[in-house]
Amino acid sequence: MILTALSVKRTDGEAGTGNQIRRIGSHNDWFVPGLYINELRRTWSMGLFCAIILFFAIPVFVLMAFSTSDYYVDRPERALSLLEECFSSANPFVTIYALLGGIICALLVAQYLFDRRKTNFVCSLPVKRQAYFLSATAASLTWSVFAWITSLLFLVPIALLTPAIRSHLGVVIGGFFVMLLSWLCIHLYFYGLTMLACAFCGTSSMGIGMCLMLGGYVPAAVLSLIGLAGMSFSNINSNYYLNESLFSALSGVFRISIHTAKNKSPLFLLGCAGLGVLFLAISVLLCTVRRSEKAGTPFAFDRVRDLVKYLLMALATLLGGMLFWAMSDGSWSSIFWLLFGCVCGGLLSWMICNTIFYKTPKMMFTGRRSMALVLVIITVCTLCARLDLFRVDAYIPSDAMTRGVTLSMNGGPEITIRDKSLLRIYNTMAKNGQRTADRHGTVELYWLLHGNEKIDNNVPARAVYFGGSVWNTWYLLPVARSAYALYADWCTFVQALTARDNFADIYLEELYHSIQKDMRASPQKSFRIMINTRENVLWDGFEGTAYVSGDALLALLDIYRENIRAHGADAMQYDCIGDMRVKTDSGYVMLPIFSYNETFNEAAKKMLGGPSGDYVMEYDYETTFVSATVFRHGVAVAELSEEEWDALLRDGKMTVNTSSAEWNPLMLFDTEYNVVTVLNVVEQMQEKYDASADEYGYTEKETDVSYTNTNTYKSTLTGGFWLGQTPDGFGK
Amino acid sequence: MSEQYTPLAGEICICNVTKTFDSVRSLDRVSATIRHGSIFGLIGSNGAGKSTLLRIMAGIYRPDEGSVTYDGEDVWENTMRKQDIVYLSDDQFFFPHGTVEDMARYYRKMYINWSDEKYEYLRSIFNLETDRRISTFSKGMQKQASVLLALSCCPKYLLCDETFDGLDPVMRQFVKRLLAEEVADGTLTPVIASHNMRELEDICDHIGLLHKGGILFDREVDAMKTSIHKIQMVLPHSDVDALDFCTPQGEPLHVVSYKRSGSVLNLIVRGERERVELAVGCKNPLFYELVPLTLEEIFICEMEEKGYDFNSIIG
Asked: Which mean pLDDT values do the consecutive 10-residue runs of chain B (315 residues) have?
C-alpha cells in the first residue's frame, strides 16, 4: 500500500524543467507573492485591530466633537477645520497611533528574527532572506494602509450627514487623502526605524530598546551636552539652544508630536517617507548578512553591541558627573564629586550593559580596556568644561562686535548702553578679569551682538530689556581678584556711567517715558503688580501677582514717580524687592520696586487689601461656563456669578490669571502682537465678548483652529479678538 | 575529503566546513559526501555539531569557512537547490494557532514539488486532524505532522534532526519504513542526525561520526561492521597480553579493546575477519567466537580511541 502511494511523488518532474522554471518565476529574489498572501492571511487580526483603534481615534472622535456642540456643524469652515484637526496631530490618539502603530506593526513582522525556531524555519525555506523580509513587510504595511483607509471611509458618511459640509464632500475627501498620505509617511518612518532597530538585535526587548536608542539617543546626548554647557559656562545661555527647532531636527518623535499636520511641509513628509524607506533598505541588507544563529541573543552584530554599550556608557558617564556636580555645593570641592559621578556613572552603566547584552553577570567586566578609554575621554572632556580649559566661558566680544550692553543689578534696574567709550571701559574690565570658581551673579550684562541679522530685525534700536530676550545673554563673571575687587570694578563702571551728563537721558528718562505713557483702564489694558520671590518681599513672602484697576494704577504710578525722582541715581544702591509690570500702549514695562519706595509700598498694600492680598482666579475648564472662584490664602472666599465675572473683566478690576489659563484658546493681542491675556471663554459668552470687542474697537477674526487645544473642545471657542491686522504667519 | 574530489550529480558535498559560535568552534574543517539514494546517519556525542552541520546543509547557517554544495552549487541562499532539501528540526516551528492545513498551504506555496496526492495519502495514514491547532498536538503528533509535511514536499534530501524522538515505537517503525520506501524508490536521501545508535542501525547504510566538531569517519555501515570485530575466547594460558596477538607472519593485530573476565577474554580488534581469525588461531584458544558489534559499540570504540573516556563519565 505504501509503495503504491509513494509512487505519486515528484509529479512536477526534475528541477530545471520548463514547468518548474515557470513556477519559480513567480518567486524572485525580492518578493514572493505567495508568501505575501499567506502573511496577509495570517496577520488579518493585526489589520483589524489597527482599524478598530483608528475607528475610535478618528470617526468616533469626530462624531463626539460634532455631537457636543452646534458650533462646529453650523459653519462649513468650522466643521471642515474640526474634521481636519481630528485627523491631524492635534488629535493625540492619531499621533500616538502613528508612532506606536508603526513600532508595533514592525515588531510583529520582525518577530521571526528573535525566535530561533522560526528563524531556522524561515531560513530553511527555498526563498531568499530579503524576499521573505520584504514580503512580510509588504503584508504588514498593507494592513496599516487598510486601517487608515477604513477610518477615512467612516468619515465620508459623517461628512454627508453634516449639513454644513455636505456640499463640500470633494474637499473633504481630497483633504482626507492628503492627510492619509501624510500619516502614512510618518507611519513609514517609525516602521522603518523599528525595523532597523530589530535588524540589529536578536530579542524583542532589545529591539524596543534599540528603537528608543535610535530615536532618542542623539537628542538625549545633545540635551546632556547643553546641560553641561549650562552648568559649566555662565556666558552661554543654554536655554537659547533648547528650542523646538533643535529637537525637531534631532528627533522625529518630537517633531511629529509638536507639529500639526498642517504645518508639516511636503518636504518634511517626503523626508519621513524617504528615511523610512532608507531604514527599511538598510534593514533588508542587514537581514541578509546577519547570522541566523543570532536569533535569541541580544545583538545580531557584535560591533553594534559594543558601539551601543560604549555610547550608553559615555552618556551615563556624563550624566553621572553632572548629577553629582549638581548635588554638590558648586564650589571647587564639586570637582571631586564630578569625577566621582563620572566614574560611578560610567562603571555602573558598563557593568549593567555587559550583563544585559551578554545575558550573564559573568561577563560584567568584559572589555575593560575600552571601558577605561571611554571613561577617561568623557571624564576629561567633562572636567575640561568644568574648568573651562578651552576658555569658552572667558570669551568677550570685541568692541566692534559689541553693539550694546544691558546692565542689571540685583535683578533690578536694567539699562542698555551703547556708548562706545563706556563699552570699552567695560570690555577692558572684563578682559582683565579671570575666572574663579565662586560666582556671585549679582552683576549681569547682556550684549546686543552687532551684525546679527535676526536680532537687528527683532530688536528696536532703543530696545529696553523686557522679560525674555532673543539675544545671547552674557554675564560678567567673578574675577580672580576676589568679590571685593569685582565689586570695585562694578562701582568704577557705574560711577563712570552716572557721572555722564546724559545719564538721565539714557536711564531715568527712558524709564519715565515708559511710565508716562497712556494707561487706559480696560479689561485688556489692566496692569498687575508682580511680587518677587525674594525673602524681603513687599508683602510677607506670598508669591504671585495681583491686579489693580486702571484708576488705582494711575494713582500708584504717580506715587512711584515721586519716589524715583526723589532718589535719582541712588536708586541702584537699594534692594529691589519686587516688580511692577505695566501695560503701556507700546507693550509691557517692568518697573522695579525698591525698598525705598515707602509711600508706594504703603499705598499698594492698602489697595491690595494688606499683607498677602493676592487673589487668584480658578475656573473649571470642563463645564460649559466658568465657575470663577476667588481664593485668598488658598481658601475660597467668594464664588462669582457669570455677571460678576463679566463685570470684573469689563471694569478692569481683575483679569484672568494668564499663568493658569495656558490652554485657553481666546487670546487678546495688542498692536504689537503681545498677548494681553488669554481667556477661557465658553460659547454662551461669545456674543458678550463680540460686543465687548466692538466696544473697545477690536476687530473680530477667526483664529486658526490649530491654536485650540483639543482637550477643550467641549467648553471653549476657537475665536479670538485681534487688534488691527493679523500678525504675519499667525493663523495661516 | 580530498580537495581534488569531484562531486557527482545529486551529491551533497561538505567541504572543510568550519563554524564557530562566539568562541566555541562547533565544526572544525568537516568534510563529507552524502550520495543520493543512501540513508546517511549522523551520529556523535552531545555537542559534537550534528545539528549545526544539518543546519549548514539546509542553508540556515552560513559556514565560516568551507562550503556545502549540492549538485555542484552552493546551498547557501540558493533557492533552486533548497527546493530539494527539507530540514526537519528536533523542535519544528509551526505557526502559532496554525493547523496542519495552514502549514500545508504554506509549504505548497514554498515548494514547487509539493504533492497534494502524497499529502492526502500521508494525512490519511497518519490520521491527524488537519483542522486542529498543531499547538494542541502531543509532541509525537507534532513530529508526525512535521514528517507528513516534509515528505509532501517531495524533497531529494530530508535532513532529520532527532526526528524519531517522541514517536511511539509503532510510529517510529512506520516512519522508518516510509523513509526506506522513498529511498528504495530512489527519490529521497534522508540524513538523520541522532545520538541513538540503535535507532540508526537498522535503517542507515552510511554513517558519519562527529566528535568535537570534527568528523571521525564517514563510512558505509556494512564496511564498518566488517572492519571491526568483537572476539570472545578462552585461552589455555592466562598470561596473554593484547600485544601478543599477531598473524603467522608476525604482524600485530590492532586491538582496540582488551578485557579479561575470569578465563574469558573479550577483544575488539580492527582488520579483516580472516586475518583476525588467523591471529586468534595462533594462540590455540580452547574456544573463540566472533560476535558482530552493534553500532553503539562501534561508536563507543571509536570514541574511546579518540580519547573519549566513557568510564570516567559513567563512573
From this structure: 59 90 86 86 84 93 92 88 91 89 91 91 87 90 92 92 85 89 87 82 83 75 81 79 74 81 83 83 83 79 68 45
A11 CB within 8 Å of a chain B CB: yes
By the 10 Å C-beta count (0-12 exposed, 13-18 middle, 19+ buried), B192 is classed as buried
* A vs B: CB pairs below 8 A: 106
Of chain B, the percentage scoring pLDDT greater than 70 comes to 93
Contact of A123 with chain B, judged by CB distance below 8 Å, is answered with yes
Length of chain B: 315
Query: With contacts defined as CB-CB under 8 Å, which chain B residues touch A291?
Result: 61-62
Q: Are B265 and B240 in contact (CB under 8 A)?
A: yes
Nearest-by-Cβ selection for B60 from A16, A37, A123: A123
pLDDT > 90 in chain B, percent:
25
| Cell matching residue B58 | 539546509
Phi-psi domain of B212 (left: phi exceeds 0; alpha: psi -120 through 50; beta: other): left
More confident residue, A238 or A544: A238
**Cβ neighbours of residue A672 closer than 8 Å, sequence gap 6 or more:** A586, A587
Q: Give dist(CA A354, CA A377) in Å, integer.
A: 20
Enter the C-alpha cell of residue A715.
Answer: 467648553
Is the CB of residue A350 less than 8 Å from the CB of residue A326? no
pLDDT tens digits, one per residue of A508-537: 444 444 444 333 322 222 333 333 322 222
Contacts of B106 in chain A (CB under 8 A): 38
Name all contacts of A311-315 with Cβ < 8 Å and 24+ positions apart: A311/A213, A311/A217, A312/A213, A312/A349, A312/A353, A313/A346, A313/A349, A313/A350, A313/A353, A313/A371, A313/A374, A313/A375, A314/A346, A314/A374, A314/A377, A314/A378, A315/A217, A315/A220, A315/A221, A315/A224, A315/A349
CB-based contact, A22 to chain B, within 8 Å: no
Question: Where do the domains of chain B lie, and which CATH numbers do they carry?
Answer: 12-212 (3.40.50.300), 224-314 (3.30.70)
> Are the Cβ atoms of A38 and B109 closer than 8 angstroms?
yes
The predicted-structure confidence for A285-337, as pLDDT tens digits, reads as follows 999 899 999 998 999 999 999 999 999 999 999 999 999 888 876 555 678 88
Chain B residue set in contact with A, beta carbons under 8 Å = 21, 55, 58-62, 77, 79-80, 82-87, 89, 91-93, 95, 105-106, 109-113, 115, 117-118, 121-122, 125, 154, 177-178, 181-182, 185, 187
pLDDT of A161 reads: 78
pTM: 0.66
A8 dihedral zone (left: phi>0; alpha: psi -120 to 50; beta): alpha
